[in-house]
């Protein structure tokens, strides 16, 4: 069972349900109203519709868009056409148009679970949590055994302030998830967050102890409990618990170091946090992604403090790259930092050899293009775009545009620079997308 956070709700629902529409009805659904035999317009609309579905499933988004618009013009009453066209709008980033079509499809056939799930996803992306909650309550009533829907309901209860309902539902699901340590852990962390919002510290502690008792070999509940104590001001209790767990072997020395990093950051003792992190770098028992998360957290929290300068911790992150030369997440973060510091030549030299080893990684080509543009080298930009096309045939649209612009005007930088989309260095403002027990997202 997957219990993950979604980043792009409409798109993922749309793509995941795309092929299913070719075989309507699905389980628990009713078939949309079929075109009347004597209606030439409706018959042609269905023809365009299925051609559009096939084009979309083959990745031909704009061709599918044209076909689905033709189908919609011929038969504006068919909910399946509205649904598919809405999904296509979503893929193009036009969420408002997408949502109105998904609402129309669901309104025409509210028994269709496909439409309901997609509309729920659309409401969540649009921030309409109360509307998403109503849809998911209906989905749960239709299939009480759908744990994904129930898990989503817990999140929505939290987002809409119905904490008691969320805690109650989480408690019910915990019994079901006990045979699955990973799922149980994720669910319990969510329940703990809800309990923390109610300021029930006794219940929070009870949840951590129960979690640890169920899975004594899992170090996460011990680690997370100590981190929670540090974050909520229980420093003395946290330090006492940390010492006890280290002696008992429940917390490793590396885990203890990472926890002290969090403690010093929370206390704004940034030099002490830096010293602990330096000691953590060579510890292979702690993952590279967790170390880079801590360095980025320290960078973010220490900005504006006494003694802080831009790039203060960059040499330490470079040491991490040297320690983990094949870790793409660490490499990507470091390349973004170099670009942020306008060290374009270093970024280019770092990534150029990696593009040959990992030609399918689109971010490498994107960063190489940014570095070439930063160096104000049209010739280098053309080389990167050409190599991207040779080594990775499905070159990103941005690389194709840059290549076309550079070739048509090899000496005109403005035409190239104009195509560069400004991007914030997200590494300094958020944790990696894959939360870990030591991640600040926990």
Topology (elements, then pairings):
Layout: H1 9-17, H2 40-57, H3 61-74, H4 79-91, H5 95-108, H6 113-126, H7 129-142, H8 147-159, H9 163-177, H10 181-197, H11 201-214, H12 220-231, H13 235-248, H14 253-266, H15 270-280, H16 288-302, H17 314-323, H18 328-340, H19 344-357, H20 362-374, H21 378-391, H22 397-408, H23 413-417
Helix pairs in contact: 1-4, 1-6, 2-3, 2-4, 3-4, 4-5, 5-6, 6-7, 7-8, 8-9, 8-10, 9-10, 10-11, 11-12, 12-13, 12-14, 14-15, 14-16, 15-16, 17-18, 18-19, 18-20, 19-20, 20-21, 21-22
The topology string of helices and strands comes to HHHHHHHHHHHHHHHHHHHHHHH
Main sheet: strands, sense, barrel: none
Question: Helix count?
Answer: 23
| Cα radius of gyration in angstroms | 26 Å
User: Shape, please?
Assistant: flat
Percent of residues in helical segments?
55-70%
Mean pLDDT: 82
Structural class: mainly alpha
Beta-strand portion reads under 5%
Q: Which regions have little confidence, pLDDT < 50, spanning 5+ residues?
A: 1-7, 19-38, 395-442
Distance between the termini: 20 Å
Report on the structure:
This protein is mostly helical and 442 residues long. Helix 1 packs antiparallel against helix 6 and helix 5 runs antiparallel to helix 6. The longest helix is centred in the N-terminal third of the chain and has 18 residues. The chain is flat. The two termini are 20 Å apart. The N terminus and C terminus are likely disordered.
